[in-house]
Amino acid sequence: MKREIYQIIKFLLFLFLFSSFCFAQPIQLSPQEPAQTLNQPKPQEMKKAPFSVSALPDLIVENIWLNDQNRICFKLKNIGLGSPQEKDFSLAKLKLIYGSREREYNLFNIDPQRLLYRPSGTVSFATDIEIKEPLRVTVEVDFQNNIPETKENNNILSLTLIPRKDLKESPVTQQASSVSEQIGSKEEEIKGKFREGKTIKKEELKVVSPTLKVIYPNGGEKFTIAIDNVNIQWDYNGPPTFFKIKIKNSKGQQIVLANLSSGYKYKQHKFDYTIPPDRYKLEIVSEDGKIKDESDDWFQIIPAELDFGFVRHANQVRNHPNKPGVKQIRFLVANRGTKILRYLSFKWIILTQGHVYLEERSAGFDPVYPNTNYSSDWIDIPQGCKIRIFLDPDNIHNEPEVLRDDNYMEILNY
User: Fold this and answer.
1) What's the number of domains the chain is made of?
2) Three-state secondary-structure class, residue 149
3) Alpha-carbon dihedral of residues 74, 127, 170, 299, nearest 10 degrees?
């Protein structure tokens, strides 16, 4: 009996559980009311994140002006939100056009501290170009479009610059003017006596004879090779003739600088590498040799402390012995300065014919002594490419800008 009661209870319990499972229904929500959790926005309120774009620089020429020496200066600015890439910056150049002449500068020489890498960063640069009359001056930064920018049509500025006429005369110019005025005054005095029938002494007539006087350099000056612009000056009073302008050292060796007519009384000159460092005197001689004058004492022509660069026309180019189509280059670097350099670096960039950047490498010389040439190892140039080589690319030695023209070269292999 107990067994039958146990079976009945077991059956009823099974029936109850089975019916609960079969007839239970999940709660269904209306399609118009999708399930939402607290603080979760509706699907139509979801916003997509903005698309991220790398910021680009935007270089402009902000201003052009003349400094106190009537030399051209300009200011560059990055008005973009980004920074140039180093590989692009190292290739970029600036073009300066003044009148019918032009000059190019490497941008990394103008801005060695990379001030233009910062948004709103500026850099000012003073050239050694002096103008003496109103001139149209144009400055164009990155004129070859090596640097990707926000805008590519705002890199140029043109202005007409008018030099100051009220610059204070140097003692040399004042001395030249004084000599001319004294001679001119004496001539007028003699002419006046002649017109009035007065007696003219023999000694007075000597004044109107042709006279020549070296004004500058006249002794004691120092000029740095390839840097200093020397305003050679003299004063002449007499009939038209031609003069030979030359310098001579203590051994009597002479170097002719120019041949000019007597209408000239000055000449701008820069002593280049063809003139050995030494003591010199300026000598000016008429074409017949009868009129001449020289500096009262010796002046010096000296080398720069920092002056290094590629030795032009000394490059060696050959076909790679094991790689068909590949060329190799080896070059010479000269230290023409007086300072020993602990390390002198250079880098080279390989570009395709379409100016596509491929790779960049660097090396250097250690140490570098004055008056010594150094040869590089062979460097490969792949077929259809070109190589650009930069010496001391960051100008860590602070070499004068006027001497850095020979710190860059480009070789093609196509």
Assistant:
1) 3
2) coil
3) 170
User: 162-169 contacts: CB < 8 A, separation 24 or more?
Assistant: 162/66, 162/134, 163/66, 163/70, 163/131, 163/132, 163/133, 163/134, 164/66, 164/68, 164/70, 167/68, 167/69, 167/70
**Sign of torsion over alpha carbons 394, 397, 398, 403:** negative
**In-domain check, residue 35:** no
Per-residue confidence (pLDDT) for residue 92, from 0 to 100? 93
User: Which of the listed residues 268, 301, 334 is the one where a domain comes to its end?
Assistant: 301
Co-location of 192 and 289 in the same domain: yes
Determine the 3-state secondary structure of 219 from DSSP.
Answer: coil
Q: Which two tokens stand for residue 17?
A: 């559980």
- Confirm whether 313 is domain-assigned: yes
DSSP letters for 67-122: -TTSEEEEEEEE-SSS---HHHHTT-EEEEEETTEEEEEEHHHH-TT-GGGSTT-E
Strand arrangement of the beta sheet that strand 122-130 belongs to: 59-66, 71-78, 122-130
Give me the domain span that covers residue 125: 59-161
Last residue of a domain, one of 240, 268, 301: 301
Q: Locate 405 and state its tokens.
A: 């023209």
Are 89 and 144 spatial neighbours (Cβ–Cβ below 8 Å)? no
In a domain, 42, yes or no: no
Q: How many whole angstroms separate alpha carbon 346 and alpha carbon 200?
A: 73
Distance CA 16, CA 12 (A): 6
Residues 188 and 146 placed together within one structural domain of the fold: no
Residue 21 lies in a domain: no
Residue 228 to residues 209, 224, 271, 400, Cα–Cα distance (Å) = 35, 6, 8, 11
Q: How confident is the chain (414 residues) per 10-residue block, as mean pLDDT?
A: 60 59 44 39 37 70 90 93 88 92 91 88 91 91 93 90 64 43 57 66 60 93 91 88 92 90 81 91 92 95 94 91 94 95 95 88 95 95 93 91 87 86
Q: Which two tokens stand for residue 351?
A: 């570009």
Residue with tokens 């001689």: 285
DSSP 368: B
Q: Which two tokens stand for residue 202?
A: 């023999």
The one-letter amino acid at 249: N
CATH number for the domain that contains residue 242: 2.60.40.10
DSSP state of 341: B
Tokens of 53: 């774009």
Separation of alpha carbons 13 and 319, rounded Å: 98
The angle subtended at Cα 28 by Cα 27 and Cα 32, nearest 5°, is 145
